[in-house]
Write a structure and sequence with these properties.
Elements: H1 3-23, H2 28-59, H3 63-74, H4 80-103, H5 108-118, H6 121-134, H7 145-154, H8 163-174, H9 178-193, H10 238-253, H11 257-285, E1 292-297, H12 303-316, E2 320-324, E3 329-334, H13 336-364, H14 370-403, H15 405-426, H16 440-452, H17 458-465
Antiparallel strand pairs: 1-3, 2-3
Helix pairs in contact: 2-3, 2-4, 2-9, 3-9, 4-6, 4-8, 4-9, 5-6, 8-9, 10-11, 10-13, 11-13, 11-17, 12-13, 12-14, 13-14, 13-16, 14-15, 14-16, 14-17
């Protein structure tokens, strides 16, 4: 056979193969796979519609309709394949709903807190999974460091292999059957869907990340340094925070008042020294640090008294606090090292105040009286605020002498003005409210406990930090 004939035969074979491939979707195996894909897409659309109908029934509090839709989702056609279609549909709903929450100002820690507060721990764990799944779509370079820290704290990681089996695996872990797992999922989707818009404290994922100057980037989603609280400015040194946390943990666990006092004083000294050093360093380098915001949980009971305690601690550390009662948190506005100090000090003082309240209540035989406890905590907060404010003023005066008044005071004044402006911009209509204290014995006991709290060296500590 000549070379030309061979070439013509190859050309004909190639043309015939192309015609077969072109005709395959219309017959034989091609038609089968096309039909199968069409069925899967149809099942997916049906699943999406059933989920939407179930959510609407839940929002309308139509229990009968909701139960009917859950039954239909449980009895998905196609056996295991149908269950996988429903699971993937729900995963897609979570992706869209969680992303919408980010756009409304919510962060991972906020979502976990509100779900735990309103729906309980089981659905809070489900929310962590939903967050981990949604975060897959973002490049690490578009996720703010504060976001990564929260993912790390929540352990928001992908532990399942496929979205098609995720809900079944989650149900097995939680001891929930198919109908219960679907009810949990629909309940969480409804809660997330109805979250209100709140103040945005940092860029949502998917936008340009802004890291603090001179700080290393995090280690990826869920892998950031847990001590690195990054934001719009210099953050506290993770090594300092680790030491402070260790000291406060020992102070809260010891049964010896003198030891707790010494440990707390040392922790305060570390934070105070670091805060002033950072302010002076930023001024010397000409760094344009900006105030940032941090949300701190304020849990029941006695939320008003606890919010008051946080407010006075924030004020003494040149920050401002705004309590959002219905959502269970307060937003603290300030510079990063001061925010770290507020959060750590507030947490430690709350532990001390609670222990002192229980002890005082037991002595008076009124430990279970709500009015006693409310009055105790309110008085504790007022007295702590007075002591902290006086100590801060004394420390600032001493620091001005040692560092030079012309050098330090303008720095602190500029920071104070910046925090005030940021707070008023973020919360233009804040209403101040007093905490009711109706129990005189509780008020007196709270004041006495505040006098005994581990703060008597606060002035000495902040002075030492200015050196």
């Amino acid at each position: 056979m000549g070379s030309r004939n061979r070439e013509r035969r190859k050309a004909k074979q190639k043309a015939r193969a192309n015609r077969v491939r072109a005709q395959a979707p219309e017959s034989g195996a091609g038609a089968f796979y096309q039909e199968e894909r069409g069925q899967r897409e149809m099942f997916r659309r049906i699943a999406d519609q059933l989920v939407a109908a179930a959510l609407n029934a839940q929002l309308a509090r139509d229990e009968a309709a909701l139960a009917e839709y859950v039954e239909l989702l449980v009895a998905a056609p196609g056996g295991p394949a149908g269950r996988r279609v429903v699971n993937r549909s729900l995963a897609g709903w979570f992706d869209r709903t969680v992303e919408a929450a980010w756009q409304r100002g919510w962060q991972p820690a906020d979502v976990h807190r509100i779900v735990n507060r309103q729906a309980g721990q089981r659905q809070a764990r489900l929310a962590v999974d939903a967050i981990a799944g949604q975060m897959r779509q973002y490049a690490a370079a578009t996720v703010d460091e504060r976001w990564k820290n929260q993912l790390y704290d929540l352990n928001a990681v992908l532990w399942w292999e496929d979205d098609g089996t995720w809900l079944d695996a989650w149900g097995d872990r939680e001891g929930r059957d198919r109908a219960e797992a679907l009810a949990d999922t629909l309940g969480l989707l409804t809660l997330l869907h109805t979250l209100p818009a709140i103040e945005s404290l940092c860029p949502p994922p998917g936008t340009t990340r802004r890291d603090p100057p001179g700080r290393p980037a995090g280690r990826g989603h869920g892998q950031a340094d847990p001590g690195h609280r990054a934001g719009a400015g210099r953050s506290a040194d993770p090594r300092i925070l680790d030491k402070v946390r260790a000291l406060l943990a020992k102070a809260e666990s010891t049964g010896f008042a003198d030891e707790a006092e010494a440990l707390t004083a040392k922790a305060q000294q570390l934070m105070a020294r670091h805060s002033i050093d950072e302010a002076l360093l930023a001024a010397r380098e000409g760094t344009r640090d900006e105030p940032a915001g941090r949300r701190v949980g304020v849990d029941s009971p006695y939320e008003a008294a606890k919010a008051s305690l946080l407010d006075v601690v924030a004020g003494a550390n040149r920050c401002r606090s705004v309590w959002t009662k219905n959502l269970g948190f307060a937003t603290v506005i300030g510079f990063q090292p001061d925010l770290d100090a507020v959060e750590l000090l507030y947490t430690s003082l709350l532990v001390q105040a609670t222990a002192a309240m229980m002890q005082a209540g037991s002595r008076h035989g009124r430990s279970r009286t709500r009015s006693f406890r409310q009055s105790f905590l309110a008085s504790f907060a007022v007295r702590i605020g007075q002591r902290l404010t006086a100590a801060t003023e004394q420390a600032s005066e001493q620091a001005a002498v040692e560092a030079g008044e012309s050098r330090l005071l303008p720095v602190l004044a500029a920071r104070g003005d910046a925090v005030k402006e940021a707070a008023e911009t973020m919360f233009p209509q804040v209403v101040a409210r007093a905490v009711n204290a109706t129990d005189g014995e509780g008020w007196a006991s709270g004041r006495a406990a505040a006098d005994l709290a581990s703060l008597h060296t606060y002035g000495e500590v902040t002075t030492a930090r200015s050196r």
